[in-house]
Amino acid sequence: MNGVHLVLTGQDAKSENLGGIPPLFMPEDMGGPKGYRTFRPLLEPAKARYVGDRIAFVVADSPELARIAAEKVEVEYQPLPAVVNVADAAKDGAPKVWDDNAAGNLAFPLMMGNKEATDAAFAKAKHTVSLRLYNNRITANTMEPRCCIGDFANDSYTLYTSSQNPHGVRSILANAVFRLSENQIRVVSPDVGGGFGMKGDIYPEDGLVLWASRRLGRPVKWVATRTESMLGDNHGRDQLISAEMALDENGKILAVRAQALHAVGAYVTNAGVVPVLCALRNIPNVYVVPAMLVMSKATFTHTTPLGPYRGAGRPEASYVIERLMDEAARKSGIDPVELRRRNYIAPSAMPYNTTANWTVGAPVGWTYDSGDFARLTDRALEISDWKGFDSRKEVSRGKGKLRGRSLIYYLEDSGVFNERMELRFDPSGTVTVVAGTHNHGQGHATTYAQLVSDWLGVPFASVRLVQGDTDAVAFGRGTYASRSTMLGGSALKGAADAIIEKAKHMAGHLLETAVADIEFEAGKFKIKGTDKAIPLIDVAKAFYRPVGPTTKFGTGLDASGSSAVPPSFPNGCHACELEIDPETGVVEIDRYTVVDDVGKVINPMICHGQIEGALAQGIGQAVMENVAFDAESGQMLSASFMDYAMPRAADLPLHYEMDFIDVPAKTNPLGVKGVGEAGCVGAPPAIMNAILDALSSLKITHLDMPATPRRVWEAMQKAKA
Predict the structure, then answer these.
(1) What is the spatial distance between Cα 675 and Cα 311, in angstroms, rounded to a whole number?
(2) Contact in structure between 412 and 571 (CB atoms under 8 Å)
(3) Cα–Cα distance, 208 to 218 (Å, whole number)
(4) Whole-angstrom distance, CA of residue 457 vs CA of residue 451
(5) Which of 7, 58, 531, 570, CA to CA, is 20 to 30 A from 555?
(6) Distance (Å, rounded) from C-alpha 129 to C-alpha 690?
(7) pLDDT tens per residue, range 578-617
(8) pTM (2 decimals)?
(9) Which of 569, 591, 567 is nearest to 579 (CA)?
């Protein structure tokens, strides 16, 4: 066709000996059990494993022409049986996603806890409760879809891509796809329009545009349509779990055990292990759980691959334990709030090791450093007007509505891996933060400028942020797992301290005194015991003088810092009140209260925004969002916004009551904890427990997400029948 410049297929990739995309790690790399390690080619040459697998890549003068040409590509398909449901995929004899996988559709197993102690605890329990829960599959639907531009010139590649982790993308492209040294590939990721974990991965298109540019000798651009995003972006959640809790006569937890099937889709993605792992190890939450045995089978299905999505396993874990807590309250007759209080880990017990008696999986457990869970609960009860619920319930009854409420507690881990940050003063005395983290809506330019201004006494407006360019930033891990202020901020503190120490020598020279007599305070170096001082900015300028005695101190004032601190554990209490219309099944959230401990709050407005955004996504999952597939063909049934319901402003509470109680983290120099995923972790159980409370008069004790009007209405009709 005129205007079509290139068509690439999987056979072309094989003939050019191009590599593909492996998982970043598997459980066996951390000392865990062996699994089936997938390898994802840029284009599949022989067998499509799901609807959305990349088969051919067409390059033309315009997107419209390229799509018309793509429609004319003829593919000879031999239909194969599909399995899209995780429970069906785990059955013996299910159609295999990978023919040579001796374990069927098992990607990898995980287990942690102590079987003997758990079985003994259940044997002596006064109360036991059990639930079978499904955590529905959802997708990120970022405002900006994935997009990339590849440009091959002068024997090197430049990729512009909407990624949360540009250095990670470069590493896989260099080492696994093109097999080059990393300095032959530059990855630029500007301020990205939403990521939510989904854009933390590398995708085939990132390699395809570079390969096509090399073949054509000109830049190549690709932008996903919304349907391509639905099919091709990594999804989240999709876990089926059977969980039990044992309690004594006083409502104290004795043990928890659970068996899960967690879908990974057709491939184990870059960080595909993370949600499966975190969905297990975070189950204890804020409670004293003396014994636990939890296990999961990560399972292949003929569906879009899954990976981290805002929360990445933490929402699944919170959902399990908080649903069990309300079920235990119902069965034991103990008030749900009181039951939680009886089982909270006390502040005096910190640091608290969740793996004290584990016989398997202990290396991946947690040690909580801080937390005051009862205090946050008290505050949530206060600002939610918990005591006024009965009168509001009467008002709802007068309108013909059912009213329910819930209180839940969540805890998550935040911050992984190490991080590197730089500070550079230029000849004018202004400072640049060179960040290994990556901002895509979190407000790093504001937060980092606040910190640097506080530490160094430089004007807030003069601090500039550079990020997302592997040629400009020596190294970085990107942003995910609520890590940036904790790890990036801690590394930045190290760089700021190094700047002060380095500049002291120049300041001593300029003030004509010994370095030992110099102290730094409020942006100035001064001679101890005197009022003689010089601003840091003037000291920085002196490093750039071309001649004179100052040149002996070197040219330029810059420093780097690194951080590898342990995770922090943000936590919080959610209280929800909602109404249900019995005639339609419509759920309306009337009041929503959140009290969070995110450690030291650097910028309250940004923290509020992060929590509200995550709440919207958690509420969306609970009441409307759902990825669906046809069980026979494997076709996605929700590949557009006609069929995938996204929450709008009218679906969310008109107002959130929010507060912070600072319980500083003891594991990093800033005392901060993560904030970006908190709302997603707490909202689903808060919503679902409130719905079940509203339906309790009908003896409805279980409902799976999403609680759509039809699902709620049908449950009510069945109960009435």
Answers:
(1) 11
(2) yes
(3) 13
(4) 10
(5) 531
(6) 19
(7) 999 999 999 999 999 999 999 999 999 999 999 999 999 9
(8) 0.96
(9) 591
